[in-house]
Design brief:
It is a single chain. The chain is α/β, with parallel strands linked by helices and about 280 residues long. It folds into two domains: about 10-205, Vaccinia Virus protein VP39 (Rossmann fold, 3-Layer(aba) Sandwich), CATH 3.40.50.150; about 215-275, Helicase, Ruva Protein, domain 3. Helices cover about 35% and strands about 20% of the residues. It has helices spanning about 30-40, 60-65, 75-85, 125-135, 150-155, 165-175, 215-225, 230-235, 235-245, 260-280, and strands at about 25-30, 50, 70-75, 95, 115-120, 140-150, 175-185, 190, 195-205. A seven-stranded mixed sheet has the order 4-3-2-5-6-9-7, with helices on both faces. Strand 2 (about 50), helix 2 (about 60-65) and strand 3 (about 70-75) form a beta-alpha-beta unit. It is elongated. The protein binds S-adenosylmethionine. The site of S-adenosylmethionine has 24 residues, from strand 1 and strand 3.
């Protein structure tokens, strides 16, 4: 997220903090948006909450007041120091000074489908954060994120939509994706140059469709969208000829945005089986 100005907001204990662009720091200050986010999450005392990038605590404070277990992961040392001091009296709140991209949520010793992950994410690392967390989809009940509007549109796009692509297909393989509401730049200090939106991802307890080989599915989807304007016959030419596959139930004269997740899985499974048959 790029910022226009470097405001120096005052934190709760009188400390001054200079927003750091390299950490994507744009702090939420619009109380009505904060309330709406908390209302969407509807946290309950028995939940296990995980907040990514608590910053100065705009969302952390209302989450902590629920009394549920809350683990926060913040990279900025100064903010971590402040948060640790601020939440010290609350035994159910733990602040981890770590990079979320190196933090394994499995270390939180939690049950399957239990973690409720929340974050106004640093936009410069939002896609890597999503792909990092999705690896632990079995442990996660839901994830509610603030992200750049354009990214949320890509995450939630349906087949045929101009925003439909790799990000949406791969996330929708693991999760239901819901674009909840938009947030204007004026809700932040400093204000970002982009509009934002709240998105909820709910990992499927039972996936609607399962690929034989997830790496093959990733490769097929990446190859297809690397050449968005070409038909699948052209963009998947090498993969198909390498596999020796002659018969495919999917119409390869289509462009990549016109194929559903199910059809991508069909192509991927056909390639996996052909490769397997070639080896055996
Ligand atoms: N949650 C706060 C709010 O809504 O006002 C701050 C949101 S700000 C957009 C993003 C936060 O993520 C910052 O506090 C930043 O320091 C933190 N952050 C940036 N990179 C991070 C990383 N790799 N791991 C954990 N936190 C990170």
């Amino acid at each position: 997220m790029t910022s226009q100005a470097n405001d120096r907001p005052l934190m709760g204990n009188g400390m001054q903090h200079q927003a750091r662009k390299r950490f994507g720091q744009n702090f939420l200050h619009d109380q009505s948006i904060i309330d709406r986010i908390i209302y969407s999450i509807n946290p309950q005392v028995g939940d296990h909450l995980v907040e990514i990038g608590p910053g100065q605590g705009a969302i952390t404070n209302p989450l902590a007041s629920v009394g549920a277990r809350l683990d926060c992961i913040e990279l900025d040392r100064d903010l971590t120091k402040y948060l640790k001091a601020n939440f010290k009296p609350l035994d159910h709140v733990t602040i981890h000074q770590q990079d979320i991209l190196k933090f394994e949520v499995a270390q939180l010793n939690t049950d399957d489908h239990s973690l409720r992950v929340i974050g106004n994410l640093p936009y410069n690392i939002s896609t890597p954060v999503l792909f990092h967390l999705i690896k632990s989809h079995n442990l996660i009940r839901d994830m509610t994120f603030m992200l750049q509007l354009e990214v949320v549109q890509r995450m939630s796009a349906s087949v045929g939509d101009k925003n439909y692509g790799r990000l949406g297909i791969m996330l929708q393989y693991y999760c239901e994706v819901e674009h909840l509401f938009n947030v204007p730049a004026t809700a932040f200090k400093p204000q970002p140059k982009v509009n934002s939106a709240i998105v909820r991802l709910t990992p499927h307890k039972q996936k609607p469709i399962i690929a034989q080989d997830i790496k093959m599915l990733e490769l097929v989807v990446r190859s297809a969208f690397n050449q968005r304007r070409k038909t699948l016959r052209n963009s998947l030419k090498k993969l198909i000829s390498d596999s020796g596959l002659t018969d495919l139930s999917v119409d390869l004269s289509l462009r990549p945005e016109n194929l559903s997740l199910t059809e991508y899985v069909q192509i991927s499974d056909a390639l996996s089986s052909a490769g397997h048959n070639q080896q055996s």
